[in-house]
Amino acid sequence: MRNATVPVAVLGGGIAGAAACITLAAAGLRPLWIAPLGRGGDKPGEHLAPAAWPLLSKLGSSDLVARSYHRPAGITFSSWGSDHLAERHSMVHLEGPATVLNRMRFEADLADRALNLDVERISAPVAQVSRQDDVWHLQVGDTRLRTFFLLDATGRTAFVARSRASRFRADRLAALVGFLEQDPQAEVVPTRATLVEATASGWWYVTLLADDRLALNHYTDPDLIPFGSSKAQALLDRLSQETRYVGRWIDEAGFRFVTPIKATSAGTTWVAPAAGIGWAAIGDAAAAFDPLSSHGMTTALWTAIAGAEASVAALSGDLRPLAAYATKVATGVQEFLSSQREIYRREQRFLNEPFWKRRHSQHASNTLQDDT
Ligand SMILES: Cc1cc2nc3c(=O)[nH]c(=O)nc-3n(C[C@H](O)[C@H](O)[C@H](O)COP(=O)(O)OP(=O)(O)OC[C@H]3O[C@@H](n4cnc5c(N)ncnc54)[C@H](O)[C@@H]3O)c2cc1C
């Protein structure tokens, strides 16, 4: 591959990168997939919305979610805007129930689907990208590559898109993420319901995985974590002090933390435009949403398919699908911001708390911060 020239390169080894490679290969192109190997361990984000079904079907991959290490989602209980739990069943979705994924295995299976097609993979990060005379030049390890089209699927890094477009941020939401195991002596059979709970400092999400571990996410703003307190300590203190339901569930079912608690960015960011001459951003690189929507993976799939299809058209000289793609992403961002505003407004119990004050005022004025 040293000094090779390829028609299209896909950067990033997540869901968006894999879905784009499948789409390009199906269109008869031989994409180069620059996808560094992951660091192993768990990745947060397991709730796959029913809206993903038709997209997976388009990728010939809807069978992947039926595998035994995933499970259909059932009931969600939420304490949001009220001290009482509201119940919603996943069967209300016409497409079928949502799925609770084993995220790492889902990503690995989708990557295998791509690699079984005519896709070439380099398992190293892109170190440098430049554009001269309508051609992209990439440095990947000691390999130099040239390509005519770049699909940026590097997640929130937006490695290429951040220097080609303006980057915006609506908030600085962060997630404290833990995975728990049940004490083998515990006698409680854990519920398979998902629980969402709003509290003074943010909100909580907890769900049982198919392998019987519990995935726990606490969403808050980074500056609200007490100074001098570790992320793990902040999470444990808040579990016992703030939550009415989540802490009790964990205690009574005998769950305990077995891996370190990690912190990760989870705010709403996007680039505008999401595509330009010779490039398109897909997945979180184009638009990363507050996980309140549980639509990040679905967005990764649709932007990957639409972005890859637009790149095929662009390579044959038709730039209209690329422009239409950028418009569709921009519209999707505005729709998300307005539904997010509405959902946060439904919580009125903590209006004096900084986390909620920010969401009520910031979303009310719809002020966007340029993040460049
Ligand atoms: C805490 C949390 C909970 C979430 N929960 C849900 C949920 O329940 N449901 C849901 O649908 N979504 C959820 N999401 C969102 C979802 O995880 C993302 O939307 C999704 O992972 C986006 O996929 P992606 O492929 O665009 O990006 P990523 O999964 O971030 O993949 C990007 C890839 O690019 C690679 N990369 C980075 N830089 C370079 C480089 N220079 N060169 C080459 N490769 C590079 C990275 O190594 C990575 O493999 C959650 C997100 C968070 C943070």
From TrEMBL:
What's the domain of life for this entry? Bacteria
Q: Which Gene3D superfamilies match?
A: 3.30.9.100, FAD/NAD(P)-binding domain (3.50.50.60)
> Where is the chain membrane-spanning?
none
Which first-to-last residue range defines the signal peptide?
none
What the entry lists under InterPro entries is as follows:
FAD/NAD-bd_sf, Flavin-dep_Halogenase_NPB
Protein name, per record: Glycine oxidase maturase GoxB
Upper classification of the source organism reads: Bacteria, Pseudomonadati, Pseudomonadota, Alphaproteobacteria, Hyphomicrobiales
This protein's gene is called: goxB
